[in-house]
C-alpha cells in the first residue's frame, strides 16, 4: 500500500503528463504482479463495491478525531473531498501496517461481508495504522469513488513503455470483462496466448473536434461524411453463438439491450461492429433522454421497451469471420459492413448513412441541417484510414453544429472538487416564468480561473440560504449557457432537460431581467425535434 499511495501522491502532485508517465513506469517496474494487476483494475474503472456508506464514515471519523460532527461537516465542505477530509482530521497512527495493495483489497472484500459493528472496528483499526497519504487512498477504496488524474491511455502507454510493447496491443489485451480474481498480470498483459474470452471488445477509435478549415483537409473526394448520432457509442459482437454489447467505457451492457438478441440468427459468427445505440422510431432517432430511462433500470418492463425502442446504427466493421479488420482501409471496411447489414436484413440493425457532397461548401450547408435529422453534426473520416486506438488526430474528425444558447440567472452554487474545493464553481441556473425564476440546469465549466474567483467572491457576499453544501444566491448574475440538445422531462421542475450544458460566457452586460423565459426555452423543442 505504501508504494501505491506514493504513486497516487506523485500523480496528484503533478500536472505534467511525462511526470505522471514516469511515475507509472516506476510503479510497474517495482511492484509485485498481483499489485500491478489491482492497480490496473483501479485505474481502468474496475472499482470495488462500496464497503460502507459515507454517513457512517463521517460519524466514525469525527468520533476518532474527537470533534463534533458539525465541525467535521464544516471541514468536509471546506476541503470538498470526503476521503481527504477524513485523512486530515484523524490523529496520528498508533502503529504501522505493511500490507500490500492486494492484501488490502482482500481485506475490503472480507470487511464488506461483516456486520456493521465489526466493520467499524476493522475500519477504525485500519485508520490507526496508516499514514495520511495511505489513509487518503484507503478512504477512496472504502467509498468506491476511486478516481485518479490519469487517463486510461496514459496507463496503456506506461505499460507499453515498461514492457516494450505496442500500445495498441496493450489496449486490446486489457479490454474486456476481466477482474483481478479471474486472471493474473502475466495472463492479461504479457501472455501471447489466444484470449478465450468470446466477449472481448476492441479499443475504440475516437475523434477530435475539427479545429481547422475544411480546405486544410485536402480533397473532398478523399473523405467520407456521416451524421454524428447522439446516443451511446458501443460495440455489438457476435462470437460463440452469443451476442455481446459493450459501451465505450468498457461496460458490458448486453442485458440492458434485449432487442439485440434478435440478431443472433441474422449475423454470422465472429463479427464485431462499432456504432451507436439509439432510441429510434419511424425511421428517425428519438431524444437521448428516452435512452436514459432504460440505462439505470434493473428490470426492463414491456412499457419501457415500447416507449424507448432501440436500434444499433453501425458505422464500422472491426471483425468479420473472426478476422481482425481494423488494419484494412475504411473504404473496404465500409463495403463489407454494408453487405453484412444487407444480408442480416433486420430492422434493429441499421447502416449509418453516408452524407453525399461534391465540395466543402455543400458539406457545410448539409451540416446546418443536422438537427433536422436528429444529429449533433458530422463525422469526417478519411477513406484510406485504418481503425486506430484511442483519440488520434488526422484521419477522423467530429464537426458538431454550433450549440444552442440561452441566457440564465445564477440562483445557487456549490463548492467544486480538487483544486476548486474552496471555490463555488458548480452553479444552478434559472429562467423567468411568469415573473418568477424557475431552475433549469446546472453547469460547472466554461469560465476562466479569474472569472471563477470573481463569481466566487460575489457568491460569498450574497448567500441567501444554506441547504447542506448548496447555497442559494441573490439572483443578479447572468450567464450564456450553451447546450447540444433539449428534450421534455418530467423529472425537472422546468419541464425540460438540456444536453451537455456549459457556460459560454458571463454576460456582465446584461441585467437579470434580460434573461430568457421558459417559454423561449420550450420553443427550442421544436427546433430539435
SSE layout and pairing:
Blueprint: H1 2-12, H2 17-30, H3 33-43, H4 54-65, H5 69-79, H6 82-89, H7 101-111, H8 116-127, H9 132-143, H10 152-163, H11 167-173, H12 185-190, E1 205-209, E2 223-229, E3 232-239, E4 242-247, E5 271-281, E6 284-285, H13 288-295, H14 302-307, E7 310-320, E8 323-324, H15 330-344, E9 349-351, H16 360-367, E10 375-382, E11 390-400, E12 404-415, E13 424-433, E14 436-443, H17 449-461, E15 463-467, E16 470-473, E17 478-483, E18 485-488, E19 496-499, E20 502-506, H18 518-527
Structure in a nutshell:
Helix content is 35%, strand content 25%. It is of the alpha+beta class and 529 residues long. It is globular.
- CATH architecture descriptor name of the largest domain: 2-Layer Sandwich
What count of structural domains? 3
What form results from the Cα inertia axes?
Answer: globular
Number of strands: 20
Give the proportion of residues in helices.
Answer: 25-40%
Distance between the termini: 53 Å
Largest sheet: 7 strands, mixed
What is the CATH topology classification name of the largest domain? D-amino Acid Aminotransferase, Chain A, domain 1
Q: What's the average pLDDT?
A: 89
Q: What would CATH call the class of the largest domain? A: Alpha Beta
Strand content: 15-25%
Low-confidence stretches: none
CATH homologous superfamily assignment of the largest domain: DNA ligase/mRNA capping enzyme
Characterise the protein shown here.
The protein has helices spanning 2-12, 17-30, 33-43, 54-65, 69-79, 82-89, 101-111, 116-127, 132-143, 152-163, 167-173, 185-190, 288-295, 302-307, 330-344, 360-367, 449-461, 518-527, and strands at 205-209, 223-229, 232-239, 242-247, 271-281, 284-285, 310-320, 323-324, 349-351, 375-382, 390-400, 404-415, 424-433, 436-443, 463-467, 470-473, 478-483, 485-488, 496-499, 502-506. It is of the alpha+beta class and 529 residues long. The chain folds into three domains: 2-143, Orthogonal Bundle (DNA ligase i, domain 1); 205-400, DNA ligase/mRNA capping enzyme (D-amino Acid Aminotransferase, Chain A, domain 1); 404-527, Nucleic acid-binding proteins (OB fold (Dihydrolipoamide Acetyltransferase, E2P), Beta Barrel), CATH 2.40.50. The longest helix has 15 residues, at 330-344. It is globular. The model has no long low-confidence stretch (mean pLDDT 89).
Amino acid at each position: 500500500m505504501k508504494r501505491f499511495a506514493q504513486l497516487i501522491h506523485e500523480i496528484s502532485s503533478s500536472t505534467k503528463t511525462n511526470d505522471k508517465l514516469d511515475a507509472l513506469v516506476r510503479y510497474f517496474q517495482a511492484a509485485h504482479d498481483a499489485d500491478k494487476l489491482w492497480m490496473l483494475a483501479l485505474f481502468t474503472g474496475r472499482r470495488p463495491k462500496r464497503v460502507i456508506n459515507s454517513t457512517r464514515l463521517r460519524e466514525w471519523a469525527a468520533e476518532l478525531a474527537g470533534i463534533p460532527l458539525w465541525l467535521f461537516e464544516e471541514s468536509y465542505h471546506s476541503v470538498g473531498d470526503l476521503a481527504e477530509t477524513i485523512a486530515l482530521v484523524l490523529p496520528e497512527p498508533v502503529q504501522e501496517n505493511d500490507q500490500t495493495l492486494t492484501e488490502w483489497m482482500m481485506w475490503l472484500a472480507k470487511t464488506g461481508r461483516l456486520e456493521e459493528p465489526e466493520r467499524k472496528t476493522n475500519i477504525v483499526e485500519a485508520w490507526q495504522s496508516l499514514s495520511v497519504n495511505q489513509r487518503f487512498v484507503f478512504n477512496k477504496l472504502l467509498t468506491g469513488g476511486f478516481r485518479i488524474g490519469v487517463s486510461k491511455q496514459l496507463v496503456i502507454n506506461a505499460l507499453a513503455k515498461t514492457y516494450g510493447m505496442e500500445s495498441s496491443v496493450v489496449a486490446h489485451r486489457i479490454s474486456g470483462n476481466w477482474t483481478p480474481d479471474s486472471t493474473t498480470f502475466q495472463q492479461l498483459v504479457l501472455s501471447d496466448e489466444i484470449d478465450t474470452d468470446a466477449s472481448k471488445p476492441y479499443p475504440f477509435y475516437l475523434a477530435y473536434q475539427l479545429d481547422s478549415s475544411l480546405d486544410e483537409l485536402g480533397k473532398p473526394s478523399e473523405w467520407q461524411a456521416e451524421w454524428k448520432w447522439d446516443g451511446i457509442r458501443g460495440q455489438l459482437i457476435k462470437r460463440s453463438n452469443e451476442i455481446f454489447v459493450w459501451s465505450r467505457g468498457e461496460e458490458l451492457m448486453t442485458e440492458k439491450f434485449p432487442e439485440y438478441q434478435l440478431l443472433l440468427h441474422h449475423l454470422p459468427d465472429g463479427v464485431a461492429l462499432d456504432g451507436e445505440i439509439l432510441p429510434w422510431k419511424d425511421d428517425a432517432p428519438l431524444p437521448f433522454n428516452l435512452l436514459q430511462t432504460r440505462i439505470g433500470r434493473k428490470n426492463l418492463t414491456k412499457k419501457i421497451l415500447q416507449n424507448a425502442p432501440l436500434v444499433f446504427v453501425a458505422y464500422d466493421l472491426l471483425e468479420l469471420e473472426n478476422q481482425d479488420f481494423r488494419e484494412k482501409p475504411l473504404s473496404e471496411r465500409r463495403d463489407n459492413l454494408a453487405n453484412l447489414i444487407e444480408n442480416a436484413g433486420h430492422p434493429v440493425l441499421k447502416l449509418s448513412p453516408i452524407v453525399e457532397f461534391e465540395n466543402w461548401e455543400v458539406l457545410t450547408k448539409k451540416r446546418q441541417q443536422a438537427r433536422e435529422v436528429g444529429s449533433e453534426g458530422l463525422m469526417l473520416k478519411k477513406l484510406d484510414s485504418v481503425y486506430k486506438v484511442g483519440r488520434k488526430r488526422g484521419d477522423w474528425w467530429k464537426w458538431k453544429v454550433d450549440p444552442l444558447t440561452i441566457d440564465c440567472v445564477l440562483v445557487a452554487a456549490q463548492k467544486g472538487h480538487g483544486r476548486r474545493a474552496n471555490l463555488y464553481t458548480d452553479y444552478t441556473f434559472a429562467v423567468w416564468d411568469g415573473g418568477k425564476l424557475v431552475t433549469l440546469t446546472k453547469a460547472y465549466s466554461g469560465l476562466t480561473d479569474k472569472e471563477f474567483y470573481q463569481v466566487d467572491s460575489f457568491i460569498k457576499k450574497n448567500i441567501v440560504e444554506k441547504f447542506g453544501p448548496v447555497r442559494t444566491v441573490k439572483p443578479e448574475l447572468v450567464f450564456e449557457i450553451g447546450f447540444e440538445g433539449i428534450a421534455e422531462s418530467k423529472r425537472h421542475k422546468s419541464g425540460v432537460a438540456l444536453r451537455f450544458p456549459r457556460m459560454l460566457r458571463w454576460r456582465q452586460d446584461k441585467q437579470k431581467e434580460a434573461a430568457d423565459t421558459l417559454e423561449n426555452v420550450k420553443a427550442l423543442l421544436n427546433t430539435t425535434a
